[in-house]
Amino acid sequence: MPNPVTITLGRLVQAAARLRGGGTALPGLVVEKLEPDFAVRILGELPQGVVLVSGTNGKTTTVKVVTELLEAAGLRVFTNNTGSNFMRGVISSLLQKVSLTGRLNADIAVLELDEAHAVNFVAAIKPRYSLLLNVLPDQLDRFGSTDYTAELLAAVARNTTEVVVLNREDELLAQIPEKETLIAEVRWFSEENSARQSDTILKSFSGNTACFEIGGVCYEVPLALKGRYNALNATAALALVHAIVPETPVEVLTEALSQVHSAFGRGESINVNGTPLELILVKNPDGFMQALESFDSEDCVTMITVNDDYGDGRDVGWFFDVDFSSLRQSGVAVLSGSRAYDMALRLEYDAVPLQAVDTDVPTALKTFLTDSPEKPHRIFCSYTTMIALRKLLGTKAEMERVV
Amino acid sequence: MSAAEHKSLTILNLFGSQLNNFGDAGNLLVLRKRCEWRDIAVELLDFEVGDSPEKCKGAHLILGGGGTERGLSLIKDDFLRIAPLLHSLVEEGVPALAVCTSYQLFGEYLESSEGERLEGAGIFSLHTLRGAERQTGNIVISNSDFGEIIGYENHSGLTFLHEGQEPLAQVVSGFGNNGKDGTEGARYKNALGTYLHGPLLPKNPQLADFLIAAALEQRYGEPLELPPLPDQWVQPARAAAKARPR
Q1: N or C: which end of chain A has fewer CB within 10 A?
Q2: Does the ipTM exceed 0.85?
Q3: Cβ of residue B237 closer than 8 Å to a chain A Cβ
Q4: Reported pTM
Q5: Among all residues of chain B, which has the CA nearest to that of A314?
């Protein structure tokens, strides 16, 4: 049983960190030092085990969908759905939920972990189920190449005991069952145009209504989630949850799915003195492309903020893998962040008109909010600039959630 | 010197679907746009696996980027098939930009991740071994023709220039070819090889314009004047990149 002292201390650090407006990493770090197997002990006792979700894009939203579907199926779910997909983030979430005697009031854990942390995690705890979404270029200054990222996810698949759900359309993930000896059964999800058959298919998506085929039966589901990429994330979540609770009628799952909204910090709307403001996290080319395709830039004032800190990816070369021509009509009002000028250079090559560049995020935000305040505003932000913007915009409690 | 307007040139893009790591596709965009802005028409030859070597003939500019180990294993045989042709084009004075994997392939040989020795085109007199650690970070290099060149390096290969092989530039800050001799990249005639991503050309338009001017001269047999472009964001972007930690 985890030590009550560890839990109490961890919670104190957490409270202190929160007062400073800070993140989820520090309490996790403290607990990890005090009791290295803290998470292993608690998660190891869950009756239905651990579900791991990994891949480059869509983890946070997918975990949110999976969690809500499992809850609809009657399970008590523990999740680290804070966007902090490191082991320390998991510990931090555990601290909030665990009793002083170290018991977690849950049947199953659904965890989002980035590729590198997922590998460390499966070395300690074997997940019963895992869902691997995609392997896309992201933070290559850290991972080196997508080949390496794929190897990390292959290790996750190897260590999964019951079912591995894979994206049929992802070239690198689709090779895993051929290359690896897997204990777990493989289930596939994909879009309709797949040459090979999948277990769960996104047949169509238009006007925010998705049509899913599960086990040969079609289900039409109106989604509150926006964008085609989220419809595919929902497909992945359905495939996974159907594997975990095969006895639950699919209608129960699709009904719950229609109620799910996008995940915290991954496309949220807030109200700033009457001006609706959307923050959209963009961290790699595919994510940025999907965001540009999913959100109409017309009648909207746009800002882009980009840093090159560790959390953003140090190499900004990926700006050139994004097609910005959809912003040509509306233009961009303000660019900010430490690599704002790299973005300015990028936009020039796509002939996107630009009003202002200001590397200082606070002053840039002020300029941006005074520009046509009657119109909706949207900021595409890299990870550390999103953190900075959220601080500037006030505490979470003061924000009116519109989504 | 007559003007470059209304002229045209053909760019050969090598294995664009595989050798496109770290934004290297941006180099092609920059070359195309800087031609378009000057009313120079560009024809693009996309050379991919399975294409006939004939397709490479008539190129006035050769472009190749970086790829993954997997990408390299997919293209290496087809690359070797066109290597003699690329070599003779460079000998004739056709300009080339070979970044990362392409740079290594333009050398004499390279070692794959499995320790297998792959033959290169031998355009540059150099070879590449597999290093123990991946070198990543902002890098600044410099030479007298192009001034400071700013980019981002991300490679595990260690490249060694053979005697008589000219480097592209000297390392000002960063790792470069091998972290030891202070060299970065290689140059032979109008062919430039380098590890620099960023991508390379947006923040170093002097290199883009060198390649375009050399391609036009190659095609029309005389130097043509390239009208200057405003490039208003280049200097601040270079300054910002230089000010960032490695």
Answers
A1: N
A2: yes
A3: yes
A4: 0.78
A5: B137
